[in-house]
TrEMBL record:
Gene3D superfamilies: MFS general substrate transporter like domains
Keyword field contains rRNA processing: no
Protein's membrane topology: Multi-pass membrane protein
SUPFAM superfamilies recorded: MFS general substrate transporter
Keywords for this protein: Cell membrane, Membrane, Transmembrane, Transmembrane helix, Transport
Transmembrane segments: 31-54, 60-77, 98-115, 121-140, 161-183, 189-212, 233-251, 271-294, 306-325, 331-353, 365-386, 398-415
Main location: membrane
Entry keyword annotation includes Iron: no
Protein name per UniProt: MDR family MFS transporter
Domain Major facilitator superfamily (MFS) profile, chain residue ranges per copy: 31-419
Length: 419
């Protein structure tokens, strides 16, 4: 008799918790909903183009492997590396003008890339595409993180649940984008680029109408003074380096994975389906994984588990690469790599974003959000060029995969202790 009321109480609490989770989207503010849907649209336009860029550079433009790696690294660095600029501008001028300016530049960059025929023109277009994201992405991400903290403090639930929704929205766009790009690639690469530009035209129009001129509670900060405290924040810089190792591994979806798919199947067609697999996993399992991690792991342990899963993905291909499998069976290691990389991403990305507000200086969340991407972008620039060089050197086929496996595994030691 004494146990029965306790069981009823526990069941009631679990029922209420489940109801709260299912109503998370409905309880979000209109601003948070807009920002989350913004991420979906950003990735829809972006991933319609990016998965097919390496093949276009190597075949249509005729660039060498190291040059393709350098161009992809420059794209990432001009985006991730300059996030610190976009974040500082968002702190200084607000979210709206920075987002609108970034959309205009992204439209121009995609149109330019569609018509670029020389290596210098491709590099210019890629840099413009990256810088556009360096404007709008940190503005959106920092405001989502700020709103998530406010939502948590108001009793709405864990901030990671909001950031997980943000990740799901981005992956939903990443799921549809490659499928759209694969269909348009039957016409030509220019059609893919123009379609990506068209998506951002719609984003620009929607945000011009819906994004508030001033967001309540967001105080505009003076430009000076933020970088000095940031460079002295050792715990934050350690987090940046660990996140950079994850981002370098994630960018191998666009460099080393296409090479493996081309080798095993003789075409790039399966690449779209592997991207779809990654996005579908995030869309369907990100929220359950986030809830599971929130109950069992703190932010540091969540990132550690994610980085080790990512390292395991590279080891799967490294272990099977010497066998030289081809055809449908040869794609299984690549699929295993994608699955483990995606599971690791689902643990690392929300935890890293949720950690930044705890380490950022007051009023500098945009700067710190951008700085994390800038440091990781520099790591990707160096790492992508080195990976392209490894692919061109004629080393045993498993060596690049083994080298890449060591990077996320070693970065676990960089994670700061929770304080």
């Amino acid at each position: 008799m004494t146990d029965r009321p306790a069981k009823v109480t526990k069941a009631t609490k679990e029922t209420k918790a489940t109801g709260r989770r299912t109503r998370t989207w409905a309880r979000l503010s209109p601003l948070l909903r807009l920002l989350i849907l913004t991420q979906l649209a950003f990735n829809l336009g972006f991933f319609a183009v990016l998965p097919f860029l390496a093949e276009h550079l190597g075949t249509a433009i005729g660039l060498a492997g190291w040059m393709v790696g350098l161009v992809l690294g420059l794209r990432t660095f001009s985006q991730q590396g300059l996030f610190v600029v976009g974040g500082a501008l968002a702190d200084r001028y607000g979210v709206r003008p920075v987002v609108l300016a970034g959309c205009v530049l992204r439209i121009a960059g995609f149109v330019w890339l569609g018509y670029a025929a020389q290596s210098w023109a491709v590099i210019g277009a890629v840099l413009l595409i990256g810088f556009a994201a360096a404007l709008f992405s940190p503005a959106v991400e920092s405001e989502v993180a700020r709103q998530a903290v406010l939502w948590e403090e108001a009793g709405g639930g864990s901030r990671t649940s909001v950031l997980a929704l943000f990740t799901v929205a981005g992956q939903a766009g990443a799921f549809v984008g490659p499928l759209l790009g694969a269909m348009l690639l039957e016409v030509d690469f220019r059609a893919v680029c123009l379609a990506g530009a068209g998506v951002f035209v719609l984003v620009l129009a929607g945000h011009f109408r819906l994004l508030p001129q001033h967001i309540p509670g967001r105080v505009r900060m003076r430009a000076r003074g933020g970088l000095r405290s940031l460079t002295r924040n050792g715990r934050f810089l350690a987090l940046c380096c660990a996140y950079g190792a994850y981002l370098l591994a994630y960018n191998q979806l666009y460099l080393i994975l296409p090479e493996e798919v081309e080798r095993t199947s003789g075409s790039q067609a399966p690449l779209a389906w592997l991207f779809a697999l990654s996005s579908l996993l995030v869309v369907t399992t990100q929220l359950p994984v986030t809830r599971w991690a929130a109950h069992r792991l703190d932010l540091r342990r969540s990132m550690r588990a994610g980085l080790l899963l990512i390292a395991g993905g590279f080891l799967v291909v490294a272990a099977t690469r010497p066998a030289g499998w081809s055809g449908t069976g040869g794609l299984l290691p690549a699929a295993g790599f994608v699955v483990l990389l995606t599971l690791g991403q689902m643990l690392v990305a929300p935890a890293a974003r949720a950690w930044v507000p705890d380490l950022a200086a007051e009023g500098r969340l945009g700067l710190y959000t951008g700085a994390m991407s800038s440091v990781s972008g520099l790591i990707v620039l160096i790492g992508s060029s080195a990976t392209g060089f490894l692919l061109d050197t004629g080393l045993p086929p498993a060596v690049p995969w083994l080298v890449l496996a060591t990077i996320p595994a070693a970065s676990v030691a960089l994670l700061p202790r929770r304080g």
